[in-house]
Structure formats: structure tokens, C-alpha cells
């Protein structure tokens, strides 16, 4: 049904109202761009609502240093994003960046971790990290279990409340004049020189620039504007405990205590198609690893579990590209929407507005999957 109060044109249409799309939309609107967000709504896969909330740098991009630089640039910009959102929306996303730990459960795992991070430091220069043996680790994290032999630590890592972040990005974009429309599944995209028409049930919206940030929907939508985005679902499962006394001041790769006191346990990766259900065997492994890391969790009650689908490319790295055949159409897709939110707001948005592409992103065009120049997995 047509509503005359709904704008049908904008300077940029963003398809997708999750963390990726909203970070870009927020950056666009803040710069004064008339921005329209079309979101499919609650019948989508909602990757933004089922994630671990990490702002994580260490180890990412060990074999693709452009991704390491991109991730680090976002982590460095995160404090500014959190402060802006707080000032504009009164939503505190609960950012904390005290550094983070990656636990190792064998001497071999510890040695491999050190070799990986040392290689990244050699290639990047400014890449601080420490390797901690068990005694050093216990001095910092007294609750660590006897099965943990050591850990890597970097001061670059942190975490946020991802639901508050999503809310803040929506409110912030609207504060700067963006229009966000829900329940707007895209049926097709028509294009003419200098104009894209996004067709939804009963509505048509036009703009000279278009950002596809529709997660798993990017693949069919991208094909309509000359963009290759062969993303597929990858399931992660998470356990959530009751609220417990504060015991963990740092995020770790598989356990974190939230700002509200509950504990999240996760870090599974499964290729099971579009099945976002939970399974007992995977949750049991997650729980056991959590207890091995922090034995006090053995007596903590679990209150929730969920499965969510990551948006994963064949090599695990993101896809960022402007269409050569349909200039003005962009695809932005990744599986680290929390970590990269600051970069999407502060560096992708200017590119979409007509600025230069960030230099780190040139290697992440979707055509790499057609030429065989696929990178090894990013996780």
C-alpha cells in the first residue's frame, strides 16, 4: 500500500538494516546525505541479533594483511563512534577495550599462536601482543582453569553490547535525517544510467547510489547490478548464563562476561545451510571449553542458547566493491559487523558518497572468486 508520507527517492538507498547496513547508513546520514534504508524485517535471518559482540583484532588476517589493517583501523575508530552515538542517542553501547585473550590448551597451540602473531607483527609493524605462560596468565585472570597452558594477549581487543549498538545506529541514523523502512523485502532492482529503482511489494524507490548490505540476500541482489557476492550461511551457536558476580574484566575468544553480568560462551563454526537451530553436541563442546577455561562456570546455570547464521564468503574475507557495469552500486558484506562498524561508518560511507575507495579494500572485490585468487580462511 502506498503511503504519501514515505519518501520514494533519496541520494543513497541502503538495502539491509542490520549492523553492516546501519553503520553505513549512519555514516552517510551524519555526512548530510539523504539516506533511505530498506529492511526486510523480522523474517530475515537477523545475524546482527545473534552474535558475540566482540571488537576483535588479534589474529585476524594473518595471511591477508590488508584485512588486518582494515580491522585495526576500525578498532582504533571505535571509541569515537561509541562517544558520538552516546551524545546523539543517549544509548551507551557499553564499549570496553581493555585488550583480549586467546586461550591455548597445549604447548603446540601456544607455539603456533606465537608464530602467527609474530608473523603479523613483522608484516604490519605496529601490532602489539604478548604471549603469557600459565603463571603470567593466572596473575591477570585468577579464575583460569588448570587445562589452560597459556594465552596470547593484545591491547587492541574489546567488546560491546551488540543489541544496544544496533539500536544506537538506528537512532543515530534517524537523528541525522535517515528514513528507515521495515518490512520492505526487495523483489528486484531496475537500473538506468544514473538511477537505481528498488522494487518492493507495492512500492518503488529510486536513488543514484545503492548499497547492498542485505547479508545473505546480497548474492541474488548483487547479480542484478553486476556484483558477484557468493556469500553463504555459516552457523554459530552461543550459550548464555544467568547473571553472576563480575569475574572477567577482559573479553576472550570463547568466553565473555557482558555488561549486564551474564556470561556468553561460543566460537563454533558449522556449514549446515540455512539451519539456525541449536544442537546438543555443539553446545556441549562449547560448555566444556568454557568450563575448562574458567572452572567456576561449572556451577552457573544456563538460561538461553541460540544459533545464528554468519554471512560468509568462500574464503571468509569480506566483499567490498563498486559495480563496474552499474556505477553507483556497492556491495558491503562481511561476518564481523560489530568489529567493523566504525570503519563502515567512517570509511565506507565517504567512499559511497563519491570519495576514494579505502586502499585496504582493493583486494576484496567479488571477482576473486571467479579468477581463483581465493584467500585462505580468515577466521
UniProtKB/TrEMBL annotation:
<dbReference type="InterPro" id="IPR006076">
    <property type="entry name" value="FAD-dep_OxRdtase"/>
</dbReference>
<dbReference type="Pfam" id="PF01266">
    <property type="entry name" value="DAO"/>
</dbReference>
<keyword id="KW-0472">Membrane</keyword>
<feature type="transmembrane region" description="Helical">
    <location>
        <begin position="12"/>
        <end position="29"/>
    </location>
</feature>
<keyword id="KW-1133">Transmembrane helix</keyword>
<keyword id="KW-0812">Transmembrane</keyword>
<feature type="domain" description="FAD dependent oxidoreductase">
    <location>
        <begin position="12"/>
        <end position="349"/>
    </location>
</feature>
<protein>
    <submittedName>
        <fullName>FAD-dependent oxidoreductase</fullName>
    </submittedName>
</protein>
<dbReference type="InterPro" id="IPR036188">
    <property type="entry name" value="FAD/NAD-bd_sf"/>
</dbReference>
<keyword id="KW-0560">Oxidoreductase</keyword>
Amino acid at each position: 500500500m502506498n503511503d504519501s508520507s514515505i519518501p520514494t527517492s533519496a541520494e543513497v538507498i541502503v538495502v539491509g538494516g542490520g549492523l553492516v547496513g546501519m553503520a553505513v547508513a549512519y555514516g552517510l546520514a551524519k555526512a548530510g546525505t539523504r539516506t533511505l534504508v530498506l529492511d526486510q524485517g523480522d523474517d530475515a535471518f537477523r545475524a546482527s541479533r545473534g552474535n558475540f559482540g566482540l571488537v576483535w583484532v588479534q589474529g585476524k588476517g594473518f595471511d591477508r594483511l590488508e584485512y588486518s589493517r582494515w580491522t585495526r583501523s576500525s578498532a582504533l575508530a571505535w571509541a569515537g563512534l561509541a562517544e558520538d552515538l552516546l551524545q546523539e542517542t543517549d544509548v551507551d553501547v557499553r564499549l570496553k577495550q581493555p585488550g583480549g585473550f586467546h586461550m591455548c590448551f597445549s604447548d603446540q597451540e601456544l607455539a603456533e599462536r606465537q608464530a602467527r602473531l609474530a608473523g603479523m607483527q613483522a608484516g604490519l609493524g605496529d601490532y602489539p601482543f604478548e604471549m603469557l605462560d600459565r603463571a603470567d596468565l593466572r596473575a591477570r585472570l585468577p579464575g583460569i582453569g588448570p587445562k589452560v597452558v597459556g594465552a596470547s594477549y593484545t591491547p587492541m581487543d574489546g567488546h560491546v553490547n551488540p543489541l544496544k549498538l544496533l539500536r544506537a545506529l538506528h537512532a543515530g541514523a534517524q537523528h541525522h535525517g535517515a528514513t528507515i523502512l521495515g518490512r520492505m523485502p526487495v523483489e528486484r532492482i531496475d537500473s538506468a544510467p544514473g538511477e537505481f529503482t528498488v522494487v518492493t511489494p507495492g512500492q518503488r524507490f529510486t536513488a543514484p547510489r545503492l548499497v547492498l548490505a542485505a547479508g545473505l540476500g546480497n548474492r541474488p541482489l548483487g547479480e542484478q547490478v553486476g556484483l558477484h557476492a557468493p556469500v553463504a550461511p555459516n552457523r554459530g551457536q552461543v550459550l548464555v548464563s544467568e547473571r553472576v558476580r563480575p569475574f572477567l574484566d577482559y573479553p576472550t575468544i570463547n568466553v565473555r562476561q557482558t555488561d549486564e553480568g551474564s556470561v556468553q560462551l561460543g566460537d563454533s563454526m558449522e556449514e549446515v545451510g540455512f539451519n539456525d537451530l541449536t544442537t546438543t553436541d555443539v553446545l556441549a563442546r562449547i560448555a566444556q571449553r568454557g568450563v575448562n577455561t574458567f572452572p567456576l562456570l561449572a556451577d552457573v546455570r544456563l538460561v538461553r542458547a541460540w544459533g545464528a547464521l554468519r554471512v560468509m564468503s568462500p574464503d571468509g574475507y569480506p566483499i567490498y566493491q563498486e559495480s563496474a557495469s552499474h556505477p553507483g552500486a556497492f556491495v558491503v558484506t562481511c561476518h564481523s559487523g560489530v568489529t567493523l562498524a566504525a570503519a563502515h561508518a567512517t570509511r565506507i560511507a565517504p567512499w559511497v558518497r563519491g570519495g576514494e575507495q579505502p586502499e585496504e579494500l582493493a583486494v576484496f572485490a567479488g571477482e576473486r572468486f571467479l579468477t581463483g585468487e581465493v584467500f585462505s580462511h580468515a577466521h
